[in-house]
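Fig. S4 source data, part A: sequence.
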Amino acid sequence: MITSIELKDGLGSLEYGTDAFERPCINYVNNQLEKQEVQLEDCYTILKELTEVYDANEIYDNFLKIVDRTKKKIRKEDILFVEKIGNQYGTKVEVVFLILYMMLIQRGKETVCLPIYYLFFEDYSIKQCAHMLDDMEEESIRKLGKEKDIFG
């Protein structure tokens, strides 16, 4: 089973790991093999900045194309698809989309999509989005996802 993704242009890689509290996370591994936990706030900041240039609906629709393809494990054809979509917006967004793709597999679709939906369409702050699901049960997350129709 594939547990990491090599980034293009020698930028390092992304791999599954656990944080200091033994919760699943995504790590960025640089060329010196130093690991750093990916911070959701950094990803959301990049996405929010992207909405200053592109329409949030367009970005979200493209993200949902990634969501639709995502299965229960990393697949090479999905990586190529995610890179193609992300590349429309530049290298930083491509990396963010790859991180989100890995999170979709690791955490589930509603858990990843809801904060992005709230970031784009409910005017939540980056910090609110990063922590909005911290104390929610899985059933409540699914219910909220249905209410907001986050999958279009």
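Fig. S4 source data, part B ends here. Residues 91-107 form the longest helix (17 residues).
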